[in-house]
């Protein structure tokens, strides 16, 4: 058996030279067909490419699987010795502000096929993946990157190629190893930035799973694969812990991303970000990598442990933005991840998550797996009446004439173009309930529901009884609610049940017209964010009539609320409300956050699909 390499075109789909690996063999037809699928490779691929095709394990019979594991005990990344099952390192100290833009690669051939990629390098971008990367390029067109860090894997490098086509500045490509030594190197003649290939940004190492279709992994590895699906942070393969290793490796990547480096200034002397002036802050760094490693980068910056794997998913070509500032002497520790990361003290930077997993595509993913959603939206401050503080359980009811007039008093200041854009986004999800915070008027609600299909009469069943709501202070949701909050919630159960049923009944007549049968409840006062979250979960847990047989159907709750409560609800969803969660979250006008459940919301940890997504907002309105 031998392999023959030949050029398949002077220009590939992304404008680069490619090689094809054509297998010449007398082995089975499937093996030949399977390996020929791995044909497209960039011309600067690793010299160890043939080693990646060496099978180390096959199924005991063709009935079990048709694919080969591509792991043979070592690979080109073994030399970096970064596969360590250890706690993450704290974020390093910084001396100047820095913005980090983290992007996942576009759809790859193995994404489309459902094959486990891990840190293998045998897939390239599909046409869809190239188009996704182009959309990300458009979203980032106003930013000017002082530096680019990319994974060594082709699918990430291709995505970086597309994004950098929107940059007017030239970037010097370099490769570096275990430390970011090249980051401080001379950027070279005619270049004002660096493009660095960082091995620690490769995708999660999945060893024997790599190269298998997902159903083949399940058939071959049984209980191990089930644990990978259900409890990935405790999952091990031959004594290796892929997720815990990944968390540690992400913390190593942060050491490289945040180390000081020299750079030339743009010819204009200016660096533009979102149309703003950041001449005092020239460090804007682009990171292009993968789903799992990007989750680990986000989580380690937020101080969240490996148990959060898959609770902060990253869509193809989606971006997340962190803004970091040096910790100043005497400054508040809020926004620093040092408290939840362990060590570092006041040297840890102040961390602000400005957006998570943003893309212009439909934010409501995997309808075959997601059974309920809680969607948070924050109108501009000018569109909300100043709230009244009231520390009791919310009043869930339909509006009175007087309160409706007060709620609508500020609505004339809202931009209908923004509302129409949001209505278009929400039309991709069947909203069943609206929970409206203080100051939110009926016109706003009706505009947001404009694209909804009318619900059938009786589709929304009354919420659960008081007995069923005993889960509220929600250890099942990992909400760190105080004892006082828990007692308040428990004491309010009977009241909530009664008013919720009344709301369904009374609002049924009031809202079946303009509100398309959606149940609307108004919060008359400012309430603790944990209480708002628990009420949203209670509504999401509403059983829907007419669901598919054999699969429970739950509600989709739209929560319209102010910025501070929006941030608090996300903290509650992540289970860090009331804890020493130092990271700040940014919420922009009309920022949208999506929280998902894969099963009964009362007993299933929440997945945060996106935070402060403003891709639907016209650029002039973005914060």
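Q: What amino acid sequence fits the structure above?
A:
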């Amino acid at each position: 058996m031998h392999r023959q390499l030949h050029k398949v075109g002077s220009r590939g789909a992304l404008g680069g030279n490619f090689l094809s690996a054509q297998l010449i063999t007398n082995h089975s037809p499937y093996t030949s067909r399977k390996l020929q699928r791995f044909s497209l490779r960039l011309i600067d691929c690793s010299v160890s490419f043939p080693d990646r095709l060496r099978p180390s394990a096959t199924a005991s019979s063709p009935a079990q699987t048709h694919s080969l594991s591509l792991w043979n005990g070592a690979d080109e990344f073994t030399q970096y010795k970064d596969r360590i099952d250890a706690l993450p390192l704290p974020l390093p100290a910084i001396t100047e502000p820095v913005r980090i833009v983290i992007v996942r690669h576009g759809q790859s051939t193995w994404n489309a096929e459902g094959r486990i990629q891990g840190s293998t390098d045998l897939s390239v971008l599909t046409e869809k993946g190239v188009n996704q990367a182009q959309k990300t390029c458009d979203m980032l067109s106003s930013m000017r990157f002082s530096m680019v860090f990319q994974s060594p894997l082709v699918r990430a490098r291709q995505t970086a190629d597309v994004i950098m086509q929107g940059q007017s500045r030239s970037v010097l490509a370099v490769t570096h190893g275990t430390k970011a030594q090249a980051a401080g190197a001379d950027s070279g003649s005619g270049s004002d930035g660096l493009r660095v290939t960082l091995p620690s940004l490769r995708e999660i190492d999945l060893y024997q799973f790599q190269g298998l279709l997902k159903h083949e992994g399940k058939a071959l590895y049984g209980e191990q694969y089930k644990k990978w699906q259900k409890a990935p942070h405790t999952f091990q393969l031959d004594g290796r812990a892929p997720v815990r290793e990944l968390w540690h490796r992400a913390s190593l990547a942060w050491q490289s991303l945040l180390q000081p480096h020299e750079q030339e200034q743009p010819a204009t002397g200016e660096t533009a970000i979102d149309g703003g002036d950041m001449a005092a802050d020239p460090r804007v760094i682009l990171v292009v990598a993968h789903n799992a490693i990007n989750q680990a980068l986000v989580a380690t910056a937020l101080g969240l442990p490996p148990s959060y794997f898959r609770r902060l998913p990253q869509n193809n070509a989606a971006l997340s933005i962190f803004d970091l500032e040096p910790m100043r002497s005497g400054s508040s520790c809020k926004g620093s991840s040092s408290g939840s990361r362990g060590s570092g003290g006041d040297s840890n930077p102040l961390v602000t998550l400005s957006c998570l997993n943003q893309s212009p595509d439909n934010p409501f993913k995997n309808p075959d797996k997601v059974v309920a959603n809680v969607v948070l939206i924050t109108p501009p401050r000018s569109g909300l009446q100043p709230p009244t503080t009231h520390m009791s359980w919310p009043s869930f009811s339909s509006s009175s004439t007087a309160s409706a007039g007060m709620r609508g008093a500020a609505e004339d200041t809202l931009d209908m173009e923004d509302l129409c854009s949001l209505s278009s986004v929400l039309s991709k999800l069947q909203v069943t309930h609206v929970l409206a915070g203080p100051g939110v008027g009926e016109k706003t609600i009706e505009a947001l529901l404009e694209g909804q299909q009318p619900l059938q009469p009786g589709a929304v069943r009354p919420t659960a009884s008081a007995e069923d709501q005993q889960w509220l202070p929600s250890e099942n949701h990992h909400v760190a609610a105080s004892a006082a909050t828990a007692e308040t919630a428990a004491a309010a159960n009977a009241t909530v049940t009664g008013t919720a049923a009344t709301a369904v009944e009374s609002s049924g007549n009031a809202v079946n017209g303009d509100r398309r049968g959606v149940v609307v409840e108004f919060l008359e006062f400012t309430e603790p964010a944990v209480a708002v979250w628990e009420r949203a979960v209670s509504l999401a847990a509403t059983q829907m009539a007419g669901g598919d047989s054999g699969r429970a159907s739950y509600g989709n709750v739209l929560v319209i609320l102010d910025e501070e409560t929006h941030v608090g609800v996300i903290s509650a969803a992540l289970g860090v409300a009331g804890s020493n969660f130092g990271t700040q979250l940014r919420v922009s006008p009309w920022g949208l956050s999506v929280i998902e459940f894969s099963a009964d919301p009362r007993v299933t940890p929440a997945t945060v699909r996106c935070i402060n997504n403003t891709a639907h907002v016209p650029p002039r309105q973005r914060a």
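Q: And what stands out in the fold?
A: The chain has 16 helices and 19 strands.
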